[in-house]
Amino acid sequence: MKTVLFFLMISGAMCQCIAQTDQRDAHEKSASTRARKDDSLICSISVDEIGWHEPKPVGVAVVIENRSEADVNVPVVPSFILSPLAPAMDPQKGELNYVALWDFEKGTTLSLSSTIPLQVKAGVSRKINSDIASLLWSRVNWSVLPHSKLYKVVPAGRYSLRLELTGNDGKTLCSSNAVDVTIK
Q: N or C: which end of the chain has fewer CB within 10 A?
């Protein structure tokens, strides 16, 4: 009898520990979900024209808004990404994305393995304009580094343009709206 009672007490203690662990994990998961839903850094882009052709510049206006109550001061890798809108005749071409790393302080291509500081005061928006046709572009799945201007790398077609700010840990801190454009 004492042995059975002892095992029941042990089993009860184990169940209580498991329940507390599950409750803590659920709480942590809920807090993580809330943090993702409550994005305090908002990025948006707009373009001067939706039809692009060489040799015209491609003006892009970027707004980075800090909706939090704390200043933001983090190293980031800003990149513009062009993704095809419609699947091409060749299925592999429908999956092609093109990327340009962007130094928004200088309006030039960001060096590989470099970051730039993103500093935005609490409750403030930062507005930046740039000509992305002058940046160096590369296809995402190539082993070739960004090497040529937009019109030399990206073929004519319809694309979706967006901006991503990536942190040192490789996580996306901010992803902008997508703007549909045509390269002629």
A: N
